[in-house]
Fold this protein.
Amino acid sequence: MSQFVPLVVHATHEAGAKVGGIGSVLDGILSAKAYNRQVGRTILVGPMFGWDPVQMERLTEAGSGVEIRYSSMHGILYDVSEPVQQALRTVERTFHVALLYGRRQFGDAEHEILLVDASNPHMGHVERFSYFVWENYGVESFRYNYDFEYNLYMSVAQPLFAGLKALGVDEGLAAHERVIIAHEWLGLPVAFAAQLNEPEQWRTVFYAHEVATARLLVESHAGHDTRFYNALLRARESHLPLDTVFGEQTSYYKHAVVRQAIHCDAIFAVSSSVREELRFMGGPFANCRIDLIYNGIRSEEIKVADHLDSKRRLQAYCLTLLGFKPDYIFTHVARMVLSKALWRDVRVMDHLDGLLASAGKTAALIVLATSEPGGRQPELIGSWESQYGWPVGHRGDNGDLVGEEAPFFFDDVEPFNHSASSSKIVFVNQFGWSQDRCGMRMPADMTFSDIRRGSDLEFGQSIYEPFGISQVEPVQFGALSCVSSVCGLIGFAQQAADELIERGVLPAGPQSGRDESGVVLPGGGALGNAFADKGFPLVVADYVGLPEEQMPGTPRDALDIDGAARGQIEARSSRDSAGQIFDRLPSSREQMSELLRVGSALAGSMSWESVVENSFLPGLARICKA
């Protein structure tokens, strides 16, 4: 049994509403029964975006799970004592901010939230805090004050900590009984504020959901993951830090802030690849303790009949859109960002199309991704449906294709659909998955769960993926998952596979192509074969491993890997991945049942309950010892 922790504060930009991956992590941890048994009080703190009507509406709309008890911006006061009201108002007057205090639902649990709107903060306080951060951590705010995001999180830190004191959340608690967890660099200023105002009186944790510098270096060069991870591996052999290999990075404010996470009492990393990227930062990071706290997935048991029921709805939708009922449904649910590397899906589909044709089979890949987080108006969707057959057809001059949707993906989809004989790609660039959001051609009884439950294969071949919850979730419903070899979930999947082998759920198979750090080894394409031999529903596309004759000898050699070289590797690896996928697609109900059995066992081993009980809580307990 882990140690009981009286108070945990989560500092995060998703304190008020779930908007991305960290929100999924918070949902998983804060709803876990083990967490709620062992943590006495939880409060999430973060910014309130008062200038954004969409964000503000999320706090009050039905189904948000938020109950506001105090908000000067909303004019709400409910069940808050007079002394606390006065204390909150004092914070607002002192820092020139607006506060919101309330409660938010996480599964069956409910936790407190404290949000700060700093649209017009007291600059004297912000500047004094910035001076403290420079004096104690060396972060030169004057270099970054051009950036709105940096200014925002420096501005909210002090009033958030003052708000915690106004609520009296830590009254009577010793230093080892109260913890601030900074989720990513955005939460670190709150940890710094605690260290400024009450030195040595709080335990602090930096929770690394990614390494911002690594993401930037991967995304900003055409060599992408092929270049970066080969450079990292060669640099590790020579004990060279990131700045030595790629040049000094402190002009990037996220890099400058994350480097100071070393001042926290603990560092959590969501995958072994993130841990290795942190070590690559050099200096104290090279040898400090970093606790591996994998992300989990939600575990839900279904039967083959449930999978087929959802698949039939997806097939019916495809029949309406494409004029044929595909034998296989492939899916990719993702954010429309460069890191998701959606073009790699098209490369694999190019090879799969010929394999499917040779077997007399058909398939449709449904990609659900959008550059419009709030989605398009349903009236527009209906108009585009009737005019040019959205979402099979798209246009770029009327609000349909916007942002990255054409250059990142649809520019590749359209020629594929013209040339492919046995498969098509449907690009649904809309937020939501229901008839009222996606048009009248979608089945009326379709829900979002169908695109997860009914898929035969989920793609997720990212160039940068710290973990990849979305990629692995459909596996529990009987799907295969095709991920890139840099995907952080692979380390956890390998661990889960080993556990399932010990329990006799899977047969023993060859070792993977990873080393003890969890980083992909050059030439480590054996990883995908290892999972296949074990009957594990994971197809690993290795875009990092190079043929021996092309292996870079030094980090400098790796830096020469450009877009053309990466493209050659993608061509080879996408062909290999297509072959693995084709060989492993189920062709009978019995094979579906086996995939569902193994996937369900995987989900149990990788569940949030398991993560919280076996990793997260022990990590907290270690730093909370008196």
In short: The two ends are 17 Å apart (CA to CA).
